[in-house]
């Protein structure tokens, strides 16, 4: 076998192995009365222990073995990392991802953590009043009666 053929075979094998490791299931299939198709798949930092997905499908929260809650967008881009206690064993979130809930088995405790998200807004060319670099806080009140 020539050098180029060997190189091509090794590259194909490596690509197949990398693809196989990235997914935990075959990309699609059917058994009896259930069909499935993988919608997305990506590598995560650390070994995942628990996962929860926001109801709007915009964020994925993963508790990792290195005791961080990793927050990914729906495309697999890491948005943030929250360090948690050594014995946190389960996580959950509020419906819109505004709170993170932690269960600590050793302390028999529950912790609720309020979350806020930083969003970049492109204001290039927009009119302004005051200092260009003045801090801005936008408050959203959703509990009107």
Describe the structure.
The chain is of the alpha+beta class and 145 residues long. The protein has a domain at 37-120: Beta Barrel (Thrombin, subunit H). It is 14% helix and 34% strand. It has one helix and nine strands; from the N terminus they run H-E-E-E-E-E-E-E-E-E. The strands form three sheets. A four-stranded antiparallel sheet has the order 3-4-5-6, with no helix packed on it. Strands 7-8-9 form a three-stranded antiparallel sheet, with no helix packed on it. The chain is extended. Residues 3-21 have low confidence and may be disordered.
CATH top level of the domain at 37-120 is Mainly Beta
Give the uncertain stretches in residue-range form.
3-21
Shape label:
extended
Structural class: alpha+beta
Percent of residues in helices comes to: 10-25%
Order of helices and strands: HEEEEEEEEE
The count of strands amounts to: 9
Main pleated sheet: 4 strands, antiparallel
* Gyration radius over CA: 22 Å
Give me the number of helical elements: 1
Q: Examine the coordinates and then state which fold CATH places here, giving the name of the CATH topology of the domain at 37-120.
A: Thrombin, subunit H
Kindly report how far apart the N and C termini lie. Answer: 77 Å
CATH architecture verdict of the domain at 37-120: Beta Barrel
| Main sheet strand line-up | 3-4-5-6
Mean pLDDT: 83
Query: Into which percentage range does the β-strand content fall?
Result: 25-35%
